[in-house]
Amino acid sequence: MTTGKNQIGFRQSAKGAATYHTINPKTNANNPTKFYEATQAEIDSACAKAATAFYPYSKTTGAQRAKFLRAIASEIEEIGEPLIQMYTTESALPEGRANGERGRTLGQLRMFADLVENDKWRHPTKTGEKNGLRKALIPIGPVAVFGASNFPLAFSTAGGDTASALASGCPVIVKSHPMHSGTGEMIATAITKAAQSCNIPDGVFSNLNSSGIEVGEQLVQHPAIKAVGFTGSHKGGRALYNLAAKRDSPIPVFAEMGSINPIIITQKAIQERGDELAEIYAGSITMGAGQFCTNPGLILTVQNEKTAPFIQNLADKTAALDAQCMLGPNIAKTYTKTAQKMQSQGGLTIVAATKGVVGDNVAQAQVASVSGKHFLENKALHQEVFGPFSLVVQAKDQQELLKIVHDLEGQLTATIIAQDDELNELQEITVALQEKVGRIIFNGVPTGVAVEDAMTHGGPYPASTDSRFTAVGNHSILRWVRPFSFQDFPEALLPEYLK
Amino acid sequence: MTTGKNQIGFRQSAKGAATYHTINPKTNANNPTKFYEATQAEIDSACAKAATAFYPYSKTTGAQRAKFLRAIASEIEEIGEPLIQMYTTESALPEGRANGERGRTLGQLRMFADLVENDKWRHPTKTGEKNGLRKALIPIGPVAVFGASNFPLAFSTAGGDTASALASGCPVIVKSHPMHSGTGEMIATAITKAAQSCNIPDGVFSNLNSSGIEVGEQLVQHPAIKAVGFTGSHKGGRALYNLAAKRDSPIPVFAEMGSINPIIITQKAIQERGDELAEIYAGSITMGAGQFCTNPGLILTVQNEKTAPFIQNLADKTAALDAQCMLGPNIAKTYTKTAQKMQSQGGLTIVAATKGVVGDNVAQAQVASVSGKHFLENKALHQEVFGPFSLVVQAKDQQELLKIVHDLEGQLTATIIAQDDELNELQEITVALQEKVGRIIFNGVPTGVAVEDAMTHGGPYPASTDSRFTAVGNHSILRWVRPFSFQDFPEALLPEYLK
Asked: Which of A443, B127, B335, B464 sits at 20 to 30 Å (Cα–Cα) from B25?
């Protein structure tokens, strides 16, 4: 069902000599399809088509774009089981997760369809006498989208970035993720079919294959590209941000780059429901083999006699869960390497780790412990270990815990676990955390990012490159639009949404 | 009435050895006050104070901040005539302009006070069952503001950037403009008095003097600074943008960097009201000695037998107006130099220029003409000449005119001058212009930027560094805020505006 070709507007293309395969992480074997790396000419062609398509696409009505987005969702549903099979084969994620993520992806496409079906999302504003000034949000131009390794559907080819950009009236060029280019091609084909059936201009969507970083780098530097959406590592996101900032004409980059998502657990919560919390957090740490940007990588608590038994309980429960295969050999290797680097830091103890781990790319879940003093003194302990790893920091007192919070880098989320009668004492920590994160959770887990208007998925650097936007929910469309004003314009020349 | 000292929170400071004076542009003589360049220690102190003040200031109620903003306006009014005298002495701008700009400044401060008096501006959003998710906009952190040479009040110390940032809950450190540091100090003193009388934390506002670029560079690179507002040259804005992007933790820079503001005039408009248009545009070109970022620097028309007489008429009317003194010797020198560089470009003719120009820093207004072909072939002709200079481009036909529009860089504004019975033929040029600018005007002049909600003052690069925001009007507050979500939070821990 896949050809390995690049999708350049309505045309498939495979002009390059370089090819690659995706890998089945469970067997380390290549999957059958040979993917053709996009050439410079193919990148240029996709960009030129997107630039040409921008004008007619930006002028489509909201109803036309809503129809297009719903058609994409239907075409994806239409693929059926083969998509789920491709997804699980390329990612090693289980079928239940594949189905859930497909549902989320379809939901997002239809949510943005609902949003743009009328023009309220443009915030049309009128001030001044007579004709005076009229303002509305308009699309910024062609957007480059980088798929995420850990969400082959919901944060990739037809994920939130693509759905929100297409909804706003921006063409999209996706740089397909090399770990799931087969899933990507299936989705790209669905988008193309939907575009053709809805009379959407050729070039509004393209999908480029690449196993390396060069295609993405070319894309971000191309004059036709006006904004970038990225979900992935700090290294990758920062590299794209730097390239975009160095352009003759710099463009905005929204990169969501992960986080260690601190969890603050009070002594009282440990005392009154330590066992329940250990169970819940063992599940959150290992969910999806820990491969979530909101994975709880850091647990902070003030030490007393109950702390050590709680950590042991959490670690044992985590280690006892079934070990899972990671998304691919590179991710598994990086996990092992960064976890080992953590282990080598002074003062750190591995409290428990999964025993008897067998199989290719299967991750050993680990819970480690360190003192507040060590954590404050060593920035290496603040780094993200992408996978089922969590570090518990035992502060000597509340003051040291606050100092640790003030010392953290920007994060996507923070969580406070406390008893209801402790609320008065939590004011200070709540506001301290607010300066560091985009979302704060009470008595829950950070994993799970609801697609809702009141969601913020983003946060101060390095959680994202621009904390002024969310990557999830209707408001994520604001990343791809700009205000535009008409002054004293005759009705006949105004767009419908400003009449 | 001025001391020349830096304002570091509530304290005045003059620790540096380096000093400078502002200049009276009409006489080229130094004004009496000796201004002390801010030292590295003073910059650090202002930043540390701002960082400390951020937490308590971000938690003030909207009513408290509204009171503060209104108190600033009252304190500025309180200064009275000496402010107008200082303004005119430092800028050579006339008293009428000084009064008008003061009115605009007071109006902006009171507009933002009205905006934040209740919390609707935070867009509080609630989704999900029970407590679920609640989201609102919160301030981003301390903001560095760079005053503009050409608006000593409305785009400087207590101008739109400062007013919107203070309204949102962000502390502000102003890098005072070296051409009007006396005006800056008077305003800084008014802000400080207002802060003290309103119990606003020490460090919410500081004002640093500097005649060079180093203080600004240090400020933009300081870890405590979380965003930057700038109005000025492309060179200056881009330099700050580059520094901010290279930080370990990059920050957003909103730089408004000027524009040549293309005016499209139809043949029919020239035929039917050429004389009237020549009069209006002579006024717009020379308004404020051409020192507006929305000055009409480029006039585009399709050549016919009426074109040459119209250009001659426009040039003669422009040259006949009283020559005006520019903002300072450096600006006057740069104007002469960039206008001369224009004159040396092949195919360009100076149609008329002010005769018998005398006096220090007095600008010779000039209207030049060039063919569409020359303009398309030579990017040097696309550059801004900051001052009373306008270039008329005669395209050979409508197609060449459209090509020119597609070839333009990003602009703040564009203007279409046409007859009412031509509307049907203007659709294509309107949408072509839309891709290039932030605001489009019909049958008016681009000079004059109304402080209204429906105003967009910004545009695609290089008009600004981020076209997704406006620098004027209530919505300019969006530059300094970020969304923040509370998940499943008890009422007692929520801020008032989310209860």
From this structure: B464
Rounded to the nearest 10 degrees, how much is the dihedral formed by the CA atoms of B416, B422, B423, B427? -70
What residue type is B271 in one-letter code?
A: Q
Residue A134's beta-bridge partner residues? A126, A486
Residue A199, sorted as left (phi over 0), alpha (psi -120 to 50) or beta, turns out to be: left
Q: Which amino acid is at A282?
A: A
Per-residue model confidence as pLDDT tens digits over A58-108: 999 999 999 999 999 999 999 999 999 999 999 999 999 999 999 999 999
Q: How would DSSP label each residue in A227-284?
A: EEEEES-HHHHHHHHHHHHHSSS---EEEE-----EEEE-HHHHHHHHHHHHHHHHHH
**Is B256 considered catalytic here?**
yes
Predicted pLDDT at A367: 98
Supply φ then ψ for residue B69, to 5 degrees.
-65, -40
Q: What pLDDT score does A258 carry?
A: 84
Rounded to an integer, what distance in angstroms lies between the CA atom of residue B290 and that of residue B261? 12
Lowest mean pLDDT among A251-265, B129-143, B240-254: B129-143
Amino acid at B331: I
Scan residues 237-256 of A and list those with Cβ closer than 8 Å to B.
241-242, 245-246, 249-252
Q: Which residue out of B47, B293, B325, B384 is catalytically annotated?
A: B293
What's the pLDDT tens digit per position in A278-295?
999 999 999 999 999 999
A114-133 residues touching B, CB cutoff 8 A: 125-128, 131-133
* The one catalytic residue among A47, A293, A384, A400: A293
Q: Which amino acid is at B252?
A: P
pLDDT for B452-498, tens place per residue? 999 999 999 999 999 999 999 999 999 999 999 999 999 889 999 99
Confidence of residue A1 (pLDDT cuts 50, 70, 90): confident
Q: How far apart are the first and last CA of chain B?
A: 47
Both tokens assigned to B409: 């860089």
A-chain residue closest to B487, CA distance: A441
In the predicted structure, residue B69 carries a pLDDT above the cut 90: yes
Residue B97 DSSP label: H
ipTM, 2 dp = 0.97
Burial of B235 (0-12, 13-18, 19+ CB in 10 A): exposed
Alpha-carbon distance of B424 to B401, in angstroms, equals 17
Distance between CA atoms of A37 and A225, rounded to whole angstroms? 20
Is B478's CB within 8 Å of A468's CB?
A: yes
* Sequential DSSP letters for B29-78: EEPS--EEPPPHHHHHHHHHHHHHHHHHHHTS-HHHHHHHHHHHHHHHHH
Work out the minimum CA distance from B187 to partner chain A, whole angstroms.
30
Q: Does A241 score more than 70 pLDDT?
A: yes
DSSP code string of B429-452? HHHHHHTTEEEEEESS-S-----S
Cα separation, B484 vs A440, whole angstroms = 8
Interval A13-49: pLDDT, tens: 999 999 999 999 999 999 999 999 999 999 999 999 9
Helix (H, G, I), strand (E, B) or coil at A20: strand
Residue B488, min C-alpha distance to chain A (Å): 6
Residue A256: active-site member: yes
Residues in chain A: 499
Residue B192, pLDDT score: 98
Q: Which member of A423, A434, A479 has the closest CB to residue B490?
A: A423
pLDDT at B130: 64
The residues in A 417-446 lying below 8 A from B, measured between CB atoms, are 420, 423-424, 426-427, 430-431, 434-435, 437-444
Give this prediction's pTM. 0.97
Residue B204 DSSP code: S
B43 touches chain A (CB under 8 A): no
